[in-house]
Specification:
Bound molecules: glutathione
Strand order of the largest sheet: 3-2-1-4-5
Structural class: alpha+beta
CATH architecture of the largest domain: 3-Layer(aba) Sandwich
Number of strands: 5
């Protein structure tokens, strides 16, 4: 059985989809509408992830894995492409984990979460835009 990625176009689950493509990891894609939390095939995202967020992977054994950072690490661990995989005992694994954590916490949540969200005020967006160069 193939793992399933619950995916909303242009949301952060795209990173998991891209990693799977690059690492040649087969995935079924379950499309959903992030605004309404409805799955294309019917049903609610809340029934899969009570937070109502992507990324979510349903693994081959039926287990659910949330958090994009963790999903990315799972994908690389399953890749048949030697250069794409990192052994957890290889120091390079921790460099990979570091960059994934950086993207999740410093870029995704601190910058993109605010700049691209309609509910944030212009003052807040300007403040974040000022901080962004330091992160990049
Ligand atoms: N901690 C989660 C956050 C994921 C997240 O913020 N996903 C956004 C899309 S990029 C989402 O689902 N937003 C809908 C919502 O929060 O209701 C992760 O890193 O995967």
């Amino acid at each position: 059985m193939t793992a399933t990625l619950y995916h909303a176009p242009l949301a952060c689950s795209l990173a998991v989809r891209m990693a799977a493509a690059e690492g040649h990891v087969p995935l079924d894609i379950a499309y959903l509408n992030l605004r309404t939390k409805t799955l294309e095939t019917g049903g609610s995202l809340y029934d899969i992830n009570p937070l109502g967020q992507v990324s979510v992977l349903r693994l081959e054994d039926g287990g659910i894995l949330t958090e994009t950072s963790t999903a990315l690490l799972w994908i690389q661990s399953r890749s048949p492409v030697a250069w794409f995989r990192r052994d957890p005992f290889d120091p390079a694994f921790f460099q990979l984990a570091r960059w994934i954590a950086f993207c999740a916490t410093e870029l995704h949540k601190q910058i993109f979460r605010i700049v691209f969200y309609p509910e944030a005020s212009d003052t807040m967006k300007d403040r974040i835009r000022d901080l962004a160069p330091l992160r990049f």
